[in-house]
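Encode chain A's predicted structure.
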Amino acid sequence: MSPVTIIVVIAAYFAAMLVVSRISRRGGGDFFGARKKSPWWVVAIAMIGACMSGVTFVSVPGMVAKSGMGYMQMCLGFMAGYAVIAFVLMPLYYRLQVVSIYQYLERRFGLGAYKTGAWFFFISKMLGASVRLFLVCLSLQLLVFGPLGLPFWLNVLVNVAIVLAYTYRGGVRSVIGTDVLKTVCMVAAVVLTIVFIARDLGLTAASLPAAIRDSGMSRILWLGDVNHPQYFWKQFLGGLFTVIAMTGLDQDMMQRALSCRDQRDAQKNLMVSTVLQTVVIFLFLCLGVLLYLYAGEVGIPQTGDEIFPAVATSGSLPGIVGVLFVLGLVSAAYGAGGSALTSLTTSFTVDILGTAGRSDAQVSSIRKKVHVGMAVAMAVTIVVFNALNSTSAIDAVYKLASYTYGPLLGMFAFGILTRAQVRDRWVPLVSVLAPAICLVLQLNSERWFGGYKFSYEILLLNAALTFLGLCCLIKPASNSPKQ
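Encoded structure for chain A:
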């Protein structure tokens, strides 16, 4: 697949994004909340794409050789987590009528907890979004910028500029509109790629399920060895608490749900979306099996994150497969990057800088400067990550989440499950100590705990340590709790 073809595909998708973004802005709507006019079913479709980035598009198919379809165990946890978000967190957010979900922490505890939550989100989202966009930049470096003799930093600059261009004015409305476009492109790319690969392998609709089942890569459940990182309850609980943290306590994801008309619409959006997401992830895993079967047939040696781009652009399949791969990849990247940039701008403007006492014109001016600043910070982070990366991108995202979202999960759990007040000024210290202790335990767990190896459930331990730390900060009972 030639670099020129890839550039044409990217340019066409960028043009489509700008059109959708412009249409989405019609009828008015504020940058931060879209005036709570978004239809719930549109948001549900948008959230399918919102939860799936370039990491999902490349890493999920690539992981089946190592862990089969064990990722579905996490998906079951995701579904349970969405129920908690819909029926525990969503009523809280709508009752408080917040713009940023971290405003809850200020009302419940005080300024220290509020700023701590905002900064942990900022670090979490900046790192997570950079990992996701990095993977896309890496693929485009191999397919376009490298063959043209262009450096990686220019690759990053171009991609971040594209993300900035379509979110600069539209905010949440533009993000939701382009997320719908992203969902359609990603699902179409996966389904059509499955069809073309199956056809080349001589598989029919009737024989395809058997080929996947007999591949040796279709195992879903790991119920035996508790020390195995794929053990069911590790994966299920990891999925449950990861989605509560990375979706329910994430300004990026909740900003979409909070744009729905009311709480009931937001709940319908979440529950429908999680079912659809599970189906789409299963399709990604089926695609992964077919990619490895096909690579074995034609002698393609790449594995892991490299298997999908290697097969799609090898020239042994119809050219449309390469186009579909690029289309799915860039739609995933720009959608995830745009939503992250919007939520980072929202949180930094509202939570860290503050909007109280400022006019609408002042807030708008500050927001635009912050938006550009967030784009620059993301570009720098991607370049740094390129120098340090040595692991699967999907694994990197969840490992980062385990450490940065754990304190958020602990603080929200303490606030919802108890009525106690804490010494607010010490909350930042507890929130730093908890992940530090988790890191020490994870590095030494096999030696200290008889071979036990932590997986994504380290997030739950991180949250529990934060919760216990807050218990140590409880004020005397005479201090009545905030409402």
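The longest helix spans residues 263-298.
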